Amino acid sequence: MRNKRVLVDTSAWIVSFKKKGNDELKEFLKRSLEERKALTNELIILELLRGCRSREEFQNLKTRLESLDSVEITKGVWERTFSLGFSLKTKGITIPTVDLVIACLAMENDCFLLHHDRHFAMMRSYPALQLVDFLEKKENKL
After folding, report:
1. Alpha carbons within 13 A on the beta-carbon side of 137
2. pLDDT on residue 141
3. pLDDT tier at 136 (50, 70, 90 boundaries)?
4. Is 17 helix (H, G, I), strand (E, B) or coil?
5. Which letter, b or e, does each residue of 21-38 get, where b requires 16 or more Cβ atoms within 10 Å of its Cβ?
6. Residue 26 CA from chain centroid, whole number
7. Structure pTM?
8. Domain membership flag for residue 29
9. What backbone torsions phi and psi does residue 91 show, to the nearest 5 degrees?
10. What is the DSSP letter of 16?
11. Is-contact 21 34, C-beta < 8 A?
12. How many domains are contained in the chain?
């Protein structure tokens, strides 16, 4: 993998937590973590923590996620999100707001977006959005 950082979407984390999750995605995430290339954001942390089943799981996951480097939602991210949301809607494509923000975080920070979510695949035509997914069996370009 090139030296570029990787923003890890909630969908990729969830797949990685499953025993029968996608092995290629798990390996890619493991490498990104070992090489300290994995990034997060408070929105992603929030989505993951909401799924915890116990206080102990919540605390452990929170501590681990907060140890990662984080990208902030800046004014530039919001402006890009406003424009992208409008552009997609005019084409008849509706993407959940959190996914729009996460996609724009990746674009604004010039990093890859590791995901396992069809909503991001629907934005594939935007060249600034550098997606890494394992939704289909295909060669990964990294």
Report:
1. 0
2. 44
3. low
4. helix
5. bbeebbebbeebbeeebb
6. 14
7. 0.91
8. yes
9. -95, 5
10. H
11. no
12. 1
Residue 22 lies in a domain: yes
5, amino acid identity? R
Positive or negative, the CA dihedral 36, 38, 43, 45 is negative
Distance CA 118, CA 15 (A): 14
CATH of the domain at 62: 3.40.50.1010
Q: Which domain holds residue 126?
A: 6-133
Q: Quick one: tokens of 64? A: 């681990």
Residue 140, in any domain of the structure: no
Structure tokens at 93: 């494509």
For the segment 10-63, what is each residue's pLDDT rounded down to a tens digit? Answer: 999 999 999 998 999 999 999 999 999 999 999 999 999 999 999 999 999 999
4 SS3 class = coil
The token duo for 138 is 């295909």
Give CA separation, 14 vs 21, 114, 116, 117, 136, in Å.
8, 12, 9, 11, 17
In terms of Cα–Cα distance, which of 3, 24, 1 is closest to 110? 3
Sheet with strand 38-40: strands edge to edge: 69-70, 38-40, 6-8, 112-115, 130-133
